[in-house]
Write a structure and sequence with these properties.
Length: about 240
């Protein structure tokens, strides 16, 4: 699906890429997972969501078509970039959909002093800290991180890749108690075979006052691509409530 608009905004020395789909109804901001780009991550959501919404897809700093800039790459920085993008586009009300790292960015946005512009949020496959990831998945990530760190001393490309991978090894760092401050309605979603521990997903949902939990049977982490039908139905029903 071709975007209505594809462009960049300049933040510090970083160029943040975004695309806009549709032009009707409420505005949605879509945030992708680690090392991905927005259009590919949400390839099976763009058409159904843009039928009655204006959909903004952002490539996170240092990922997709966005560049790194001079600021350190962190979950909070990506959240700040997202708010800056919305401000640049003149958006004063938005619902946010985040997958994996994007869900963690969405949580940081919900905890920000600027969170008042967020009407609803969908958190798919998010985690509060690295311990929320099952060890069978987290251990290989940490090993790859250590191996890449040795190459990063001599390779700028390796250093850039390392900073993106660090988002999974050193972040996020969100306490369950902090989630109690969130006032917006939230849909917490995961696959029944997700790489995120089921108890951890349940902790996120139970810690947010106005949250619903949706577990998609038989699906792993990639609910938006591997279980697009069920995921799209759950998201649209939540947004239309």
């Amino acid at each position: 699906m071709k975007p209505k608009k594809s462009s960049y905004i300049q933040l510090d020395s970083a160029k943040i890429h975004f695309e806009i789909y549709g032009s009707e109804g409420e505005t949605l901001l879509l945030l992708h997972g680690n090392g991905e780009n927005g259009a590919d991550c949400y390839a099976r959501q763009l058409e159904p969501l843009s039928k009655d919404h204006t959909v903004i897809v952002m490539d996170s700093r240092g990922q997709g078509k966005s560049t790194f800039g001079i600021k350190k790459l962190t979950i909070k920085q990506i959240a700040a970039d997202a708010f800056a993008l919305l401000e640049a586009l003149g958006v004063d009300k938005v619902s946010v959909i985040g997958f994996s790292d994007g869900a963690n960015v969405a949580m940081e946005m919900l905890l920000s002093e600027k969170s008042g512009i967020i009407e609803k949020a969908v958190l798919a496959g998010g985690n509060l800290d690295p311990s929320g990831v099952k060890e069978i998945y987290q251990k290989p990530i940490e090993l790859s991180f250590k191996l890449l760190a040795s190459k990063a001393r001599k390779s700028s490309a390796a250093r850039r890749k390392l900073s993106v991978m660090a988002l999974m090894v050193r972040e996020p760092n969100i306490s369950p108690d902090a989630l109690g401050k969130i006032s917006a309605p939230v849909l917490v979603m995961a696959g029944s075979r997700d790489m995120i521990k089921e108890a951890h997903t349940e902790l996120i949902a139970s810690s947010i006052p106005n949250a619903k939990l949706k577990i998609i049977p038989g699906c792993g982490h990639f609910v938006f691509s591997k279980a697009a039908g069920a995921a799209n139905t759950a998201v649209l029903e939540f947004l239309h409530e």
